[in-house]
Automatic annotation (TrEMBL):
InterPro entries documented for this protein: Fe-transptr_FeoA-like, FeoA, FeoA_core_dom, Transcriptional_repressor_C
Molecular function GO labels: transition metal ion binding
Entry superkingdom: Bacteria
Protein name in UniProt: Ferrous iron transport protein A
Organism of provenance: Ligilactobacillus agilis
Keyword Iron: yes
Residue ranges annotated for the Ferrous iron transporter FeoA-like domain, each copy included: 2-74, 84-156
Keyword tags: Iron
Length: 160
């Protein structure tokens, strides 16, 4: 796993885990910095001097010790990434929603349920016959049909 302190270059990252003191974890969650959120690094951690990030439209400066508690995975540009259908993703593989295709009514319903771009999604369970799928996103569980999962294009996130 990569920590935010290991980020030596600018780019987009997704938070996979926050580990550290209870007070630090609570403070970060109070400002909305939780698992699944996107961070844009403006200046990397050069010589452990800290880094500058953009989080939810705000520029923040983090010192190296705070950044070492935030585990992240790199997010590549959706135009360059290989997109696969959510129905083809293996169990417990974290991925980001890149695009929702299909009928307008189905797209709108899926977006109303929280499946929007750059949302971290994992498939938790699959029914014995493969339909429906139980997803974990935004801190809750959602069951969708296989044909709906086929219209959701995702990008797998490497958290190792």
């Amino acid at each position: 796993m990569q920590t935010l302190a290991m980020a030596k270059h600018a780019g987009k990252f997704i938070i996979t885990k926050i580990q550290g003191e209870k007070a630090l974890s609570r403070r970060l969650s109070e400002i909305g910095m939780t698992r699944g959120k996107i961070i844009t690094v403006l200046s990397g951690n050069q010589a452990n001097s800290g880094l500058v990030i953009i989080f939810q439209g705000q520029k923040l400066a983090l010192n190296a010790s705070m950044a070492a508690c935030i585990y992240v995975a790199s997010v590549s540009d959706p135009a360059q990434a290989t997109l696969t259908s959510l129905a083809k993703v293996k169990l417990h593989t974290p991925c980001l929603v890149a695009k929702i295709t299909g009928d307008k009514a189905v797209r709108q319903r899926l977006m109303d349920m929280g499946l929007t771009r750059n949302t971290l999604v994992t498939i938790d369970k699959v029914a014995p016959l493969g339909d429906p799928l139980e997803l974990n996103l935004r801190g809750y569980k959602l069951s969708i049909r296989n044909f709906e999962a086929q219209s959701i294009l995702v990008q797998e996130v490497d958290v190792s």
